[in-house]
Structure formats: C-alpha cells, structure tokens
Amino acid sequence: MAIFVVVGGTGMIGSKVVAKLVERGHHAVPASPSTGVDAVTGDGLPGALADAQVVIDVSNSPSLEDEAVLDFFTTSTSSLLPAEIAAGVGHHVALSIVGADQLPDSGYMRAKIAQEQLIKQSGLPYSIVRAAQFYEFIDTIADFATNGSTVRLPHALIQAVAADDVASAVTRVALGEPADGMIEVVGPEPIGLDDLARRTLAHRSDPRDVVTDPDARYFGALLSERTLLPGVKAVVCETRFSEWLNTVTS
Ligand SMILES: NC(=O)c1ccc[n+]([C@@H]2O[C@H](COP(=O)([O-])OP(=O)(O)OC[C@H]3O[C@@H](n4cnc5c(N)ncnc54)[C@H](OP(=O)(O)O)[C@@H]3O)[C@@H](O)[C@H]2O)c1
After folding, report:
1. How far away, in angstroms, is 173 Cα from ligand 1 center?
2. Ligand 1-lining residues (CB < 6 angstroms)
3. How far is ligand 1, taken at its centre, from the CA of residue 8, in Å?
4. Residue 125 — very low, low, confident or very high, per pLDDT cuts 50/70/90?
5. Which ligand 1 atom lies nearest to the CA of residue 108?
6. What is the pLDDT of residue 25?
7. Euclidean distance between CA atoms 157 and 25, whole angstroms
8. Residue 57 Ramachandran class (φ > 0 left, ψ -120 to 50 alpha, else beta)
9. Where in the numbering of this chain does the NAD(P)-binding domain appear (predicted)?
10. Whole-prediction pTM
11. Are 209 and 150 in contact (CB under 8 A)?
12. For a pocket test of ligand 1, which of 6, 29, 32, 37 has the largest count of ligand atoms closer than 8 A to its C-beta?
C-alpha cells in the first residue's frame, strides 16, 4: 500500500488531508514538529520519509513576517526535496496560492514563489496546487488590514474557497499522477475582499467598519480588481461563501 507523508499534517489543511486519505483506505502519516519531524532543521525527516511514495507539503511558517516566511519556505523545501529523492519518493505535492506570481510586493507571495521554483528545479515529479484564499483566512486578512476600528481593503475580486474543499482537491491530486505543473483551485464565486471582510465581521457582530479603499495594500501588495482571479482552467469547488458562513458560530 502506498504511504503518504503529509508535512504540516497537523495543520488546518494537513489534518483534513490526512483524514480524507485515511477515509479512502490509504496510509497517511502527519509529519510536523508536534509529531517529531522538523522540515526546517531536517530533524526526523529521513525516518519519516523512509517508506513514503508521496509527500504532500501543506506546512506553513509560524511567523508571517517577510524574512521569516522566506526563510521558512526556502529552508524547509531545500531540506525536504533532497531527502525525498534519497528516499525514492515519486510525487511531491505542494500547496501554493492563486496569483502568487502577480504580487512581488508581498513578502509572503515571494516566499511561495521561491518554494515553487525549488520544486520545479528539483527533478522530482511534482504537482503544485495553487488555491485561492480560504474562507477561514478572511479574519486574518481583516486583522492585518485593521487600524483602530477601521478595516481598509480594496474591492479586489477573489474566488475564496472553503479549506475543506481545498483539502479534498489536494487529496485528489496526491492520489493521481504528478502533473509536473500547476492546478488552480478556487471557490464558485468572485467576491471583493472588502465584501468578504464586511460579511464575515457582520456575521460575528464585530463592530469594526470595513472601508473600500483601492489604495489599501494586501500583505504589502496593491491589487487591481482582477489580480487575484484564476485562469480559465481552474478547478471550481462547490461550497459557497454564504453556505460556509452559516456553519461558523457567530
Ligand atoms: N491561508 C490561505 O488562505 C491559503 C491559501 C492558499 C494556500 N495556502 C497555503 O496552505 C498551506 C497550509 O496552510 P494552513 O493554514 O493549513 O497552515 P496551518 O494551519 O498554520 O498549519 C501549519 C502546519 O505547518 C506545520 N509546521 C510548522 N513548522 C514546521 C516545520 N518546521 N516542519 C514541518 N512542519 C511544520 C505545523 O506543525 P505543528 O502543528 O506541529 O506546529 C502545522 O501542521 C500553507 O503552505 C499556505 O501557504 C494558504
């Protein structure tokens, strides 16, 4: 039976991917610092990868600060890929972000592009899943855009997506043949970042005021209305924002 190692398998997406693989009868092993595997230092990696056929990297940097996040994704990916080659892994799956290449002013996006480049150059068969922002991430976006009691965000359209749908897509990709390319995964409807934040905060009775501001930056980057929209071949997931919001405790 194929063994799937999920780096970041204790995180939001990772724990769902592990559960979905196990539900389908596969052997999936979470690998993260809390299970004794550190992709940055390499601690525990050779043992974790010993019998793996597929590695799914859905880890994330503990710090979102520009230098820390670049250091995290370059160091962890640079230690994972040779360890996978040494272990005879046949498919590396990684989770990146729709539009990452369009936002060089964002330190986080620069780090994801650096991660993607290392994977493409590694010689390992790979699939890069570029997902849109998760519905679950809108609170963090609003928090980063808050000054006092005001949230400033542009009306940039995104096809945000439920984390559970992303985990299903990552699982499907991991069970398939390596794409040696990108697969975009998005939600069903384009909604402005400002409106997503407005609806999320209203649902939580959060008193902050969301102001539409075309000059407001998104993690350091200026966005036009269509910068974050996917290409025509994107996989479109089903869960609508309103359906997801109804499942969230207000
Ligand atoms: N947020 C979005 O809207 C969005 C959109 C598209 C793509 N993505 C991508 O989705 C991925 C997963 O995000 P998430 O929100 O599920 O992350 P998360 O919940 O923050 O989980 C992070 C995971 O990374 C693990 N980790 C941290 N340091 C590690 C290390 N040194 N070695 C190995 N594992 C380590 C953590 O392990 P412990 O639990 O042991 O600390 C945890 O399992 C990220 O790569 C992100 O770029 C996010």
Report:
1. 18
2. 7-8, 10-14, 32-34, 38-40, 58-60, 62, 76, 95, 97, 112, 131, 133-134, 137
3. 5
4. very high
5. 47
6. 96
7. 38
8. beta
9. 8-173
10. 0.97
11. yes
12. 32
Cα 66 to Cα 63, 108, 221: the distances in Å are 8, 6, 12
How many domains, in total, are found in the chain? Answer: 1
- Which CATH number do you get for residue 223? 3.40.50.720
Q: What is the mean pLDDT of residues 107-126?
A: 97
The whole-angstrom distance between residue 11's C-alpha and the CA centroid of its chain comes to 11
Q: Is the pLDDT of residue 2 over 90?
A: no
What's the domain range around 223? 3-246
Whether 157 contacts 194, CB under 8 Å:
no
End-to-end CA distance of the chain: give it in Å, rounded: 43
What is the DSSP secondary-structure string of 120-189?
Answer: HHS-S-EEEEEEPPBGGGHHHHHHHTEETTEEEE---EE--B-HHHHHHHHHHHHHS---SEEEEEE-SS
Confidence of residue 216 (pLDDT cuts 50, 70, 90): very high
Kindly report, residue by residue over 25-72, the tens digit of the pLDDT.
Answer: 999 999 999 999 999 999 999 999 999 999 999 999 999 999 999 999
For 6, the 3-state DSSP assignment is strand
Q: How many other C-beta atoms lie within 10 A of the C-beta of residue 82?
A: 13
